[in-house]
Write a sequence for this structure.
């Protein structure tokens, strides 16, 4: 079984600007340096006029995780995240995300939508977190989902600052 989480953020910037930032390797490296955790990095990146694909590594300090999560994730926690984006039309982008933790009994997968609004844009993300641990899997899924939601909020704030600095 899995637990589903949804995240939504609004921006005063049009979807094309938000998308351009989110798939820019310079932006991705800066975001990871600030909020990616220990050992974070941009592992792969390709982009063209129709879309983009990239793979990121995040690091988590195990002490920042609840004890039940630390019990199934021994040592340093490394998260690999792959995203692919496709331009669907003017002001419309869709994407897929997969998240794995090497050596851990869990994963996450989801879909992303970035669309223009009358005044700006909106990013919607839906992620299903699956942890295959008897009895406590659901508890761990909830903890991971809360962490993911917090990370997405931090990334949205970073994106807004990034765009404001470049357009200001």
């Amino acid at each position: 079984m899995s637990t589903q989480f949804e995240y939504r953020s609004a921006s005063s910037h049009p979807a094309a600007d938000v998308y351009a930032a989110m798939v820019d390797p310079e932006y991705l490296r800066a975001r990871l340096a600030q909020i990616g955790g220990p050992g974070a990095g941009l592992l792969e990146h390709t982009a063209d006029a129709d879309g983009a694909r990239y793979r990121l590594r995040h690091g988590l300090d195990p002490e920042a995780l609840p004890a039940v999560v630390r019990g199934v994730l021994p040592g340093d926690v490394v998260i690999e995240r792959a995203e692919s984006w496709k331009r669907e039309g003017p002001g419309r982008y869709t994407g897929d995300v997969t998240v794995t933790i090497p050596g851990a009994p869990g994963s996450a997968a989801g879909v992303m939508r970035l669309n223009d609004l009358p005044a700006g844009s909106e990013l919607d993300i839906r992620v299903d977190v699956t942890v295959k641990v008897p009895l406590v899997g659901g508890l761990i899924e909830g903890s991971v989902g809360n962490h993911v939601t917090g990370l997405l909020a931090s990334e949205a704030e970073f994106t807004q600052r990034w765009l404001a600095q470049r357009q200001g």
